[in-house]
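[scheduler] slot 2 assigned
[scheduler] job type: sequence-to-structure, two independent chains
[scheduler] chain ordering preserved from manifest
[runner] begin chain α
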Amino acid sequence: MSETMPEIPASIRVQSRANRPVFTYPIPEDARATVGIDSIGMVALTFDEEMQVMALMKGSNTGAAVKVQYELAKKSLQEVNGQALPLVGEARDRAWSDMTPQARTLVLRAYNDIHTLEKDVEKDFLKGKTITLK
């Protein structure tokens, strides 16, 4: 049984592609046949876009954590093989579902790459903590 996600209403769509950095990840040549694509382009999501995904997931309890991660990565995905994906709708969902599992895994890794800091930065951040009594 396949669940379909409701389309995001035009009134709450956040940003267009204009003036947003797109991080392009070329698929290594030796993996292209397996992955089925040559490159992906991703954007860093805004807080509002992340909240839109969370709102769409409200009430979904079957594998919710995995679904949220997939939906966030899918929303961040802007291009496949240099071709822009529609911002929302059936064509975007179809592109995602037509990807090989390996391609979806790479999209998830790219999403995590642009949305998290390097481990050394996190360590340095945590080392800088101070404790005060107030």
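[runner] end chain α
[runner] begin chain β
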Amino acid sequence: PPERPNVFLWIPLPDEKEESASGKKVKKVKLASGEGKVYERELLELTREKLEKLGQGSSGIVLSEQDKKKWVEEVYEALEEKKGSYIQNFYSTLEAVRAGLVAEHRKEAQDVFRHLATVSALAESQWEECRQEIEKLDASFANRNFSDRRTREEFFIEWEKRITARFFVQVPFYLVSSKHGYPILRKPESIQGLSERVKRRLKGVYLLEGFSYSSEKGLYPEEKAPSEITKALDEQIL
């Protein structure tokens, strides 16, 4: 086992009483930053219970791949047994997927996934810097043979490191589909002169109008004051 841990998990303390002395509801402590947006609370609560049992009487846990697999299976088995809202929503979504194959039910399926689907996007103000980096990368492969698999793989790896990781972020599809953005490829003047292999990489990537980006805050609307941005990030509404 490693001498030092390579992953730290910060687990909030269990919730206090849900009702105060006055009878008013007390806001529950968030179990994770993605609660309600990425992870259902029910799933997080069961995961926390499993973690607490694993960590009893220990200052650290060594988890093998087999241990992690078993842990995940146990959590989802517990969800099945509980038959709560999470598992019900899962099966409703599964039905919507099946319904999506039938024309008259496609709208229902789209509504279910509207807040789940994500796309790659970047702030419109970042595009010129991104484009320059793309041109440099493409030029470095100008004399390479793309019929060779190794060349294609190397280009893909460099693209992921220099372009995707640096410029693209995943945003909910509803954000770009509600007049905030548009696919890069739909703006011919912005991609003029780029190679076909680059255009293929840009397929499905969106430019967001009226947004800025910082490594601290991520994407945020330009018209919002810094205090509003921070509050929005805390509440996870961006």
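[runner] end chain β
[qc] chain β: The longest strand covers residues 118-123.
[scheduler] slot 2 released
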